[in-house]
Fold:
Amino acid sequence: MQAVPPAWAGARPPHHPPSGPWPVVAAVLTGCWTVAVTVPGQLGGWLVDQVLLGFGRDRVPWLWPAAGLLTVVLVGTPALLLALLPRSAAVRATGRAWLAAALVLGVFGLLRAVPPVHHEAYLAGLAATAAVAALVLRRVFRRPAGQTVAPGPVPGTPAAVEGGPPVVRAGRPDPATLLAIAAGLALLLPWAWLGALGGLLETVLAALAAAAVGAVAAALLGTTFWSRFAVGEPPRPARLVLVGGLVSGVALLPLAAGSGQSGAQLPALLTLPPTGFALAALYAVARRRHPAGSVPTAPTRWLVGLAAFGPLAFADPEEISLLLVGSRDVPFWVAVAGGAGLGVALLLAAAYAVLFARRGARVPSRRTAAVCAAVLLVTLAAVDLGPGQPGLHGERLFVVLREQADLTGLPAAAPGRAGRDARAREVYRRLVDTADRTQADLRRELTRLRLDPEPYYLVNAIEVDGGPGVRAWLAGRPEVGRVLVSQRLRPLPAPAGTTRGTDPAPTGPEWNIRRIGADRVWSQLGVTGAGVVIGSSDSGVDGRHPALAGGFRGGDDSWYDPWDGTRVPTDSGGHGTHTLGSAVGRGGIGVAPGAQWVGCVNLDRNLGSPAHYLDCLQFMLAPFPAGGDPFTDGRPERAPDILTNSWGCPGIEGCDAGVLRPATAALDAAGIFVVAAAGNTGPWCASIDDPPAPYPDVLTVGAVDQRDRVAEFSSRGPAPGGATKPDVLAPGVGVRSAMPGGGYGTLDGTSMATPQVAGVVALMWSANPALVGDPARTRQLLRETATPAEPTYRSRAPGDACGGPANITGAGLVDAYAAVEAAR
Structure:
């Protein structure tokens, strides 16, 4: 290291008449106000997004633009006064930086009108907008020609012209830049350990966006800004770090608030502002090496850019959701990474201040700084490849073709299972033939482009890799109807953990079983569901649970896990075990304990995608052995009779209103009875809107409590297009059923009500095998035998009546005994 005189040694600050303490007090109050407005505003906006998502409501596109405008007004007004009124140059520089940062936040907030599912488009917009903002700010903050750089030239050096551009020195980066790179890499360590990258394009766009955000920070915190805090008689470098660090941290706060989709900006609020102290210390380093001119802005660009890259690239905003807070999922790990980043930023600030911003501090050599950066780079790579989640984990595209299979004119089939099997075989043949014929050219082209096509036939569709460019190309092809985003979850640093129950085992039929009369069907009619198979598409099934193990159909085509490829029924989430237990569980929890079951995993960590939902529905139409080809190895004669579906596919997972419509139509045509949950987004009207619940060939189930009142959370109709939904109700409050690990638990939801209706259908078809394969007649009998239930309303306003009680209660509470009697 070499000792260099401090840049401010012997310098005299620009003269300003004394103005008293009030400008400083005003600046302190404005800074506190900026923090008090920005942080709660960002957290509150995200919570509003999450509440709307939880209630199944459409996101409000103008929410974030409006929040950004409000922040500009609330923060920008006092900042503007600071920029104009005080005599103190430092206070005016503070006001200008805070005002510009607030304006940047307002502009960046406009980009959040882009739906989170289109993350690449958002990142591209952020990169372009931030680049333009950086250019504008550089022109705005360009110093007037003829002014000298405060605190003044060091004796023996030529005077610096403050109006000139920053001095760009050719050759290798200086120590301040290398130290900034090292600090930025240190801030990336928690993200490389706990997060995971998206796709290639997504990662590249995140890097470009982060670099542009760094450029904005460099324009905000340039030489003019820092020079206002590097003054004093005698020189006090600690003031630069303390005061300049605080002011720059507040300036970086709005910049962090605007960088990232809703949710992804929250960890940046923790990690980005504290870097202001490290930047102040790095300015001291750069000033010592450039005592006569403008210091480089590269340290700010690198440090802020790398700090912004972490949350932008290593976290999926769609997974930073309250829906996943119940376990150690992405929101938990994002919070941990943000907290760790805060700790790293504070440690860097303290270390850099002690090493470089004290009197007599030595400027590190370029070699020393380069070694620090190299060590951090190697450490980052080791963390990512070791305890991290290396590789790319981007979304895919779901390409729906225009032509769907024609299932009209199916030959009449004999009643019962033989007729059902014949219809299922014919439906399967037509679906596969249509997909093979219409997909051939497109699949060849996608394979040539190495986009990894995965074909489907139940909906004539293909899942492929690709971003916005591939999507635009596909959408323009004549055989393509539309292109959706098919979600892919990013891996976790540790398993989320298995959900287990804590309730004691039942000692007899549960209250919900007794309420619908299923126990009377067993005891008085001698019907338990024997001879009928129910298929469950959910988070999985604990196949070893004592209430479920005996009912598994077995064979090589009764279990499918498209997420993890497990070969035996397993469930870590618990939801699927609980729902299936209410359908076929033994020991008093299931409606049809004599029925058999098959299973498929379409949810992982409570999230799905159009492709994975279709994976399971396709498997249910024509089961195939492990490792088999659905197109050639399907066995429609092994299809389950009834499907229970306690899930829905909202827009945030990539579905649109009609994407699964061909699938449920084909299942119905094949004689497979489909039951689906209405959803838990009540008491709002028209809240039955996530596929497959709104479809007419699906029996949609709402929930009631122990007093036969419709549960407040139970979704209501009318369905899109005005159809009356739900169809029937079942108990869905305080339902006890099986949980992974052999235990039991009590849950609420239409998810709990749905499998009970599937169990009632199993009792009906077991009592009268001639009904097997006749979904229309079965739906009619269920409606005709249902008993009245009490509707509930959000309020008594006319608009909350949902068009009539039928859109709240459907036909009423399902009556297992009456339905089986009618079936017989």
Notes: Residues 1-17, 144-170 have pLDDT under 50 and may be disordered. Residues 511-611+669-823 form a domain with the Rossmann fold fold (CATH 3.40.50.200).
